[in-house]
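Quick illustration, no need to memorize.
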Amino acid sequence: MKIVLVIPIASTILLAGCGGGGGGGGTGAALNVAVPFTSMAASPRPGTTELSGLTVETSYTSNTTTYMVESVAPPQIATGKLTRTTDNAGKMTSGSIAGTLSSISGATDPSNPGVVALANANPTNFYLLTDETNFNYQSFGIWQTGRNTGSGFAGALSAGAPTAAAAIPTSGAATFNGNVLGAALDASGENYTVAGLAQLDANFGSRTITLTTNSNTKVSMVTGLPTSAPELNLSSTMTYA
């Protein structure tokens, strides 16, 4: 099994987790005029907010009969943007992800716990995002276009409001717990969405971060069946500047 795309981007989720300063919800923004993002709590209700961040994107080809993936291009890291439109309660009602290689938009269906899914009449496209109630300074997710058509794009996004460098501690340690969303491809070409739990252990003195994920579950994009996926657990030790 090889990972094609995975979120979170660890340094981004660390900085978002450290972040300070929420604030009350604004009400003065026009619904269709996007305002800069500072936090979920401070986003206009109703209103539209734009979150900037990073993407990992790739293109692929697939068999139009079996839907098995036949080739995947090397992933690219680039900048991206998430646009969220919310109702009076702050729930996301529609959204779009704009990456370097592709983009996707549509109405949302918050029926899946912990994620916001695209409810689109076009079955060739989808996206999944973390639910806005889980994180205040960040959203992350995955998307795919061109399903069932023979070729398309897949991507992962992490976007939000990073903590200012001056506000990051220079000593001590902290543990951050959260979630992971990703996409995976096995040796046969069957592709999956993946969800699990993430833990980030930060040592601010040495500027190192240890990432581990667990309790991963994969859902086949061919059969729709969920399966426990311990083989997709990740571990890594990283540094930041």
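Residues 7-31 have pLDDT under 50 and may be disordered.
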